[in-house]
Fold this sequence. Notes:
The complex is a heterodimer of chains A (386) and B (341). Chain A has 386 residues and is mostly helical. Chain A contains 19 helices and two strands.
Amino acid sequence: MSSVSRALRQPFGLRFASGAFLAFWCLLAAFPIVWIAVMSIKSPRDAFASSPWDVIVGPATLARGEGLSILDIVLGLVVLYFAIRWAFTRLPGLVMQYSPPSLIVLGWLVGAAVYALVFLLVFFGLLPLILGVLNSVLGPLGEPVLGLTTQHYVAVWGENEFYRNFLNSLFVTAGVVTVSLTVGTLAGYGLARSGSDLAFWLLIAALVFRALPHSVLVAGYLPWFINSAEILRPIFGDLSPTLYGQPWAVIAVMVSINQPFTIWMLRSFFQNIPSELDEAARVDGCSHFQAFRRVIMPVMWPGVITTGLFAFLLAYNDFLVTSLLLDAQNQTMVPAIAGYFNRETTTTDQVEAVAAAVSITAPLFLLVMVFQRQIVSGLTAGAVKG
Amino acid sequence: MKFKTFAAFVGPSVFMMILFIALPLISVFIQSFQITQPVMQNLEVETCTPGFLTQTCVTELKTVPVIGEDGKTVTTTEWTGLQSYRNVLQMDKVWEAVSAGRLGDILQIDFWKALRFTLMFTLVTLPLVIGVGLLIALTVNNAAKALRGPVIFVSLLPFIITPVIGSLSIYWLFVGDGILTAMMESWSGTNISMFAQAWTIELLMYFYRVWHVAPFAFVIFYAGLQTVNMDTLESAVIDGANRWERLRHVIIPHLMPLIVFIALVHLMDCYRVFDEIIGFRSQAHVISLQWLTVDFLTPDDAGNRAISRAAASAMLTMIGIVFLLIWPLRRTWKDHKGGAH
Lengths: 386, 341
């Protein structure tokens, strides 16, 4: 702040107020999320205790002998710190080293999966074993002081088979991201490089489509999807599917709903790639498609990753489309949590719903941690450049 | 670029948008004038109950659905004109309420209740989102450089969280003896239940939406603040403008295009408010237009979906979108025309 001229320097009161507001905002932004995470690891009586201190410490959870000792907390935090540091310093190097340059995206996916697996094994498999021995040896330091129980997570993922919903979510989200990026990149490139009136009108139509409430569209699909087997029979014979309840039909629907946003965003990214680049390739004898494949594709990944993140968010966060177009067996995570509302009669059920909610939020938390820069650039891409 | 190449590039995308956005719209439009229902027939049924000496037999006329050869109920589709719209709007009740001078009664009808909330929600949260977003952007811009990364990280959390989960996380803070309700009760000494009346739920919904969208506004304003012309700012200082005047006459005009952009996106998104209704479980008190359509589409206890009423309510929702977009689209059209000359 020393570069700011004296005239612009702010009085202490203003700086204090500004800092205080910022601290207040950070507290407000994080509090509900942190709080449900805390609630999800407490016994039902603690989770809905009326004193905040009881919720944090969890006396009822402790009374059942479930909790963390000081040693657990310290060692756990140390392992966590090094695991995160290692992920940001060493992991990129290893991925670069072992994956062929053309398959770098696949390499990252494999790298992240292996890392997650090893982390889970160490943190939830190895660490408790070691700490169990250490706690019994150390005496007072090994006494549990902070209540913690994983019973709700075990109940949600084991008994309630939440992993099925997780797999459905994974399938739908992966499908939406892949298809909408493939289709959207081509369209975005075409729109960015064509200055015709048709391109303008397409973009305007996309803007209008962007504003449509999803329920309007679903009202249009539903009768057709339910009766699709009979409608398609003259064309496909007995193989004709009932589209209602099919995850891939939902993928097609969500890709289309997401297309307007995707092509607007990718168009603005492609406009930032100088058109001299593909013109040079064209002079060297490439067709438009060859120029796209050989010249544009290697440099377009930052924009594609950013757009992919937003496609991921749309598909992952969706409630309306998936709850109406999928049946109970193929339900994704977010609508599945609504199933808890009907059963939510005891406090145990409520805390299980909280644990399910935290399970849904955890991947998003990781996403912000890893891709913060891309998300910020994606948010500003549309606005600042017009 | 030749038309053929252009068509090859945009073809798949346009095809998907036509198949899954444009055609469904036409389908909804047609459905809103039709009604599909099972064919009913009147059957004379004789039911006998055992009685003393003789059986008591009653012959009644019963209405039962006709079952076709394939074992399913036979349905017919009829053109009913504006009947579905009448069912949704319930204008007769509206006029009754107006002529009786009890305007409050209009808000008892589902559609008008939903419209009132949707519009209020959009208009109340819009200035709040822009104000709070700008305030966060200004304060972050004021903070030390090392703090900015973590602050942006924390700020992005409410934006990125699943809307249903986000509203649930606030719901759990206030529900029953939730931690914040308990705190308010101990301050005020009265018994508070946040989810028993409409206005408290609405307040929580406004709060949730501002909490959820302000980070989006903040990130965009923050990027805009980086490009403020320092020379203009310094010359404003030399001309004797105080802090407030500099904000009012230099920074805000610079951010004006961004404010318009955020307002537009916010209007579109708020008009579609739906997830909050699910998260806060407010169906009994507060509903929105999109929720109304979804409610018609959800099978009732008998397993029937009110498709035609859903279509009518969807078309009425669309009319609102047209009003919302007329102004920005006219501006874009003028810009395009202006650019062409």
